[in-house]
Amino acid sequence: MNISERKAIDLLVNEFWRLGFLTISRRLGTYLPEPENVGNFQVDIIGRQKEKYAIGITLSKEDIYNSDLLEKINYLASRKSRSSGKSITLFIGVDDIYFKRVKELLLNIDEKIRRNIKLVLIEENNFRNHKSTNQPQQIIFS
User: Fold this and answer.
1) Is 119 part of a structural domain of the chain?
2) How many structural domains are present in the chain?
3) Which of 10, 77, 124, 129 could join 90 in a cystine, given CB atoms 3.0 to 4.6 angstroms apart?
4) pTM (2 decimals)?
């Protein structure tokens, strides 16, 4: 299942919100400004939660097979905020087809840097309501 770039960014924004991050800027958005490049690399989302910052990128098939991918991930995951010096979390949104491949690629990154990376499976049915309809429901009123 291939998801459009805009839809992948929207789903990654939903993950940011689910984890309590306020979206400061995002690519292909309507109301928020485009994020500036971090170093020489384009990012999709920048978010903030109190004094904690996060960067979000989505990976397409071309990105995954690009030889500069590990350099990009290393660079973005090793960033620290200017004000507090805290590590910035890197969220990597990946379509389910390439999830295992990216997970294997991340094994080539230093453990200290890998702690700042959150790999997010980007698929439309992944963000439905978490309450299962298979669980018996208690009837309150009848």
Assistant:
1) yes
2) 1
3) 77
4) 0.78
Contact 51, 87 (CB under 8 A): no
Q: Which residues contact 45 (CB under 8 A, 6 or more apart)?
A: 9, 12, 13, 16, 23, 25, 26, 27, 35, 54, 55, 56, 57, 91
Per-residue pLDDT of 32-84, as tens digits, reads 778 787 888 888 888 988 888 899 998 888 888 888 888 888 988 888 887 77
Domain that holds residue 94: 5-125
| Residues β-bridged to residue 94 | 59, 121
| Contact in structure between 49 and 22 (CB atoms under 8 Å) | yes
Give domain status of residue 130, yes or no: no
